Amino acid sequence: MIVLCVISLLLLTFYLREGDTGPIHAVRGGVMTVTSPVRMLGSAVAAPFGALGNIAQNATASSETLSELKKRNEELTAQVAELSEAQETAERLEKLVGLKSTYSLESTAARIIGSTGDAWTDSVIIDKGSASGFEVGMPVCSAGGVIGQIIEVSANTSTVRLITDDQSGVSAMIQGSRAQGVLQGQADGTLRLEYVVSDAEVATGDIVITSGIGGTFPKGLPLGTVASIDRAPNAVYYTIVVRAASSAESNEEVLVITSVSEDQIASDEEVDSANGVPQGGSDAQGDAGQDAGGQDGSSGTDE
């Protein structure tokens, strides 16, 4: 080892003292020339591995960044959905308040929480009952208009028979001509305005509203619009199909009308003009009795 060190020192000394044309420089140049291809090959082989290491490092960073961005996107999406739902709820409630104000309704808000699951009736359940002052027979409205009437009450829930149920009937009239009739649900879920005399002025698109006869539904509430009109030869009444103004399926919040004032029911003149029309039928209370304005015992809910 000592000998090698001495030889190395001597060679270094001679290398530094001799010129560029000296023998040691010549030997070094030859060795560099011979080994140059080997060194270049080594660099070429090592370069991809260095690049691969950089790619792997960048890929790891990109993967972490992507994961963080994805998480943030999910959070923002959830916030947008929450805000959108809150806005839609606020808009629905605002429309209910508008309906209440427009028609000066004594009413209490409730929420639809499900259907009765009864295949024979078209009805829903709301989340308030007798504890909130609700009673059988009270009308139920959405922001678009009348959707039904309470037929059963417990302490904290109520069952609402929808106007599309074939046991439902609401005293109604054409808004423009004031032609009187009874809006009745059908077994197929449609609505018909019955007992409108064939000489009355009725046109497709006419608005159908509550007439206020019977005192249960305040006068003037929207029920729907005339979808089609037909009259058989020599028929006394039109066959009028009505498109409902609103439906339970498209609403979550409703108003239960708890009281009807004197100025919200039909006048004596309006009642007299409708004397030829069977108003109502069986009471919304089902077996509880007949409608105060009913005359023929036909099915219906308006009182």
From TrEMBL:
One of its GO terms (cellular component) is plasma membrane. Residues 59-96 form a coiled coil. Residues 112-257 form the Rod shape-determining protein MreC beta-barrel core domain. InterPro entries: Cell/Rod_1, Cell/Rod_MreC_2, MreC, MreC_beta-barrel_core. Keywords: Cell shape, Coiled coil. Residues 280-290 have a biased composition (Low complexity). Signal peptide: none annotated. Transmembrane segments: none annotated. Pfam families: MreC (PF04085). Belongs to the MreC family. This is Cell shape-determining protein MreC. It comes from Collinsella stercoris DSM 13279.
